[in-house]
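Lab manual, section 2.4: Encoding a predicted structure.

Procedure: take the sequence of the chain (127 residues), apply the prediction step described in section 2.3, and record the output as structure tokens. A sample record is shown.
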Amino acid sequence: MKMDLIVVYAPTHTSGFKVLDVFDERGLIEYQIVEQAASRFLSEDRLAEDPIHPVFDQMELLRNFSMECSELSGHASARLMSNEELNQILLSVDHVPEFVEQINKNGQLLENPNSNNGKGLWGKLFN
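Recorded output:
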């Protein structure tokens, strides 16, 4: 069984919610899954604006999207996390091995999920 999926979002200036990243302990999930899940809740025009970073008008739609991503990717559940919450977690750990850069470059996160007895980044994100 895979760990939870994390859906990172940020509020938009128009009171919506933009998906920034969707990842698990191995890195970003496939963009096709994000696009397929978003297509269930957004019009074609809205989805075409940015299919891998969809914007939802309501938090309930964002929750439904995260559950759909979880189901499509074979995860037990999904966890919504605001960009602000993720940043606070990143600031609270002693060692962040180029976390943001690694996601942006190739979707692979290199820190061992079990390192630091659950007190490192992965322990805070997935436990």
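Check your result against the sample. Residues 5-126 form one domain.
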